[in-house]
Amino acid sequence: MAIFEKSQQAKTYVDPTYPMKASIENTQIVQGHTEYIIKVQNGWTKHGTIWNVYKRYNDFVQLNKEFKRQHVILTLPPKKYIGNLNQKFVTERQAALQIYLNSILSHHTLSMSAPIRKFLDIPNSVDSIKHFEDSALQHISMVLRSDNQYSLGELVPSIGWRANKQYYAVNKISDTGGKEGGGGGGGGGKRGGRGDGGEKYILSWTQ
User: Fold this and answer.
1) Structural domain of 98
2) Which pLDDT band, with edges at 50, 70 and 90, does 192 fall under?
3) For 77, which of 43, 96, 183, 198 could close a Cys bridge (C-beta 3.0–4.6 Å)?
């Protein structure tokens, strides 16, 4: 959940090309768990949009898993089961988590990726990403139907770093047109209709 430090208009736009800053300002104990209070700023100047997010260690673990799925290996401080509310330990972990955040936000590609944008509750990021996914699917389906040479396959998850770029598997459609077998492939090809020609592609769609 994000809490803004100044009143906003009905919708706040955050330019994804602006640098992001995130500093763990403090901690608090909530229902037996340590919660990290993170101050997030978008933009170079003091006039940039500022808000706070509240995260537990497990939220960082989930973020790290998202990056691992994209084969990005980062150093996250290890889990501790006993004494994790000790003030000295909390302070040390806070410093280690700050280094972890810095390593992401100082990297141009990672700082603009969907996982960190969702983690930092960037205004409208979750809604805008979902809207983009729906819009991309609709437009791609229309284009492929009009071309009539390819069929849309499944969404290819998280192979890119941009939040507003999606990848889809696309299959080449073969036209057997009632041919009775004959040479040249098809591997037991379908008769009297259109089927999968065996050629597969990755299609990207950018907002």
Assistant:
1) 2-123
2) very low
3) 96
